[in-house]
Design a protein that fits this description.
Layout (H helix, E strand, L loop, with lengths): L3 H4 L38 H7 L2 H6 L5 H14 L4 H25 L3 H8 L2 H33 L6 H9 L1 H9 L3 H26 L3 H9 L8 H11 L2 H10 L10 H37 L10 H12 L6 H32 L5 H22 L6 H16 L1 H11 L2 H4 L6 H28 L4 H25 L21
Helix pairs in contact: 4-12, 4-14, 4-18, 5-11, 5-12, 5-13, 5-14, 5-19, 6-7, 6-16, 7-8, 7-16, 7-17, 7-18, 8-17, 9-16, 10-14, 10-16, 12-18, 12-21, 13-16, 13-19, 15-16, 16-17, 19-21, 19-22
Subcellular location: Membrane
Keywords: Membrane, Transmembrane, Transmembrane helix
GO molecular function, one term: manganese ion transmembrane transporter activity
Amino acid sequence: MPTPQEQEQPLLLDPDQETAYEEAEKVHIVGIDSDSEADGARPFSWRKLWLFTGPGFLMSIAFLDPGNLEGDLQAGAIAGYSLLWLLLLATAMGLLVQLLAARLGVATGRHLAELCREEYPTWAGMVLWVMAEVALIGADIQEVIGSAIAIRILSDGFIPLWAGVIITALDCFIFLFLENYGVRKLEAVFAVLIATMALSFAWMFGDAKPSAKDILLGIVVPKLSSRTIKQAVGVVGCIIMPHNVFLHSALVQSREIDHSKKFRVQEALKYYSIESTLALLVSFIINLFVTTVFAKGFYGTDLADNIGLENAGTYLQEKYGSGIFPILYIWGIGLLAAGQSSTITGTYAGQFIMGGFLDLRLKKWLRALITRSCAILPTIAVALIFDSSEGTLDVVNEWLNVLQSVQIPFALIPLLCLVSKEQVMGTFKIGPFLKMVAWIVASLVIVINGYLLLDFFSSEVSGTIFTTITLVLTAAYVGFIIYLVSRAKQCNHSFSLKQKPEGIDVAFE
């Protein structure tokens, strides 16, 4: 059993294990070696906020990937402005989840995949790993297909979808090239991509001129009908993405934090909270731009049910094509920025997930290549099989959004379990109120998943064999969630604490 002194400190990383970042790769924070501020009042520092800025914006890419754009445009076209409140609520829930992931990474010096390997039995850890990989592959298919569609738009149809997939697949080498120049250079590239998305979709917003009154009412007045349930599930599913929880808990370790000083950890958490909030505010505005453009142009029309990533640019051009610059290409540029940035962060997340769950010590280029291959091969198959007619890719994208929602509990429940444990977090474990709010969010997502499964049974399942297989898989899915929840409630079970490195005092001041 851990001693009282051990319970006051978080679970720190064993130096012999795989790490998210080597010490030489981390960003040095101004004043990290100075104790003059110690436990007294520490004034807000714009310079420190700037140095901590980066991980939150990389994390926010998952809120802006092609899957989100698919969900945005369909929500706008089919539901009009009525789901804007849900977009805001889902973004707020996503922010809570990401702040908890950042808290876990900062306080422990380890990321979620590594801690899951320690917390759960081998069989459960392997199931969680498989679920995380499935979610990542599903997201990556959307991201690569989205990039390929953008490339086809910008090349006036000269480059086929499968060739666009191959071009996008090469971005892992761009990622490796950029990573060699340091974390800050990589973050700067993503800042440019986010700015490109913001400018592109803001231009579209300016061309469409949606009603400010309708936007405000859509945000503050909750509405939901049976016709828009699927779009609502898609909005929640593509905002809170499982692989992004693993990613953010690792990204925050790119800053050099002195874990032996409690106030330094608190300082890091403060600046990361501000940065993440700003990043997701930007992502919400961009998602709102896309949703409202399609709500203004296509809600209530005969085209509403047929619009997706594949044909959205064409319909936009027909509706708003009289501007200074063809809106088709503006859409293509924004979609390309979303696809390219999200595929690179997907590769990044895949490295952390694979390395953490399997404790792999592979070279980065090899791990990136393996991660990329796991997603590219099924993506090429999807591109070749489902590109036969207009709309088939959009159906695939829609169900991939739903897949993200189904996978959320397998990242969210372990996260809530770990950030609530004193053996893991020390004094940085979450309090009762935050814990209650987090579990309400998790329960809401699980209830949505339950509705989705029931809807699937009623509309898709037919035949004795198919029904039996689906029932077995659903029972296993529900059973594993129950196992994770029951284990999370076992607050006093033993946890294998790692020995701290000899000669290093990790007790908080």
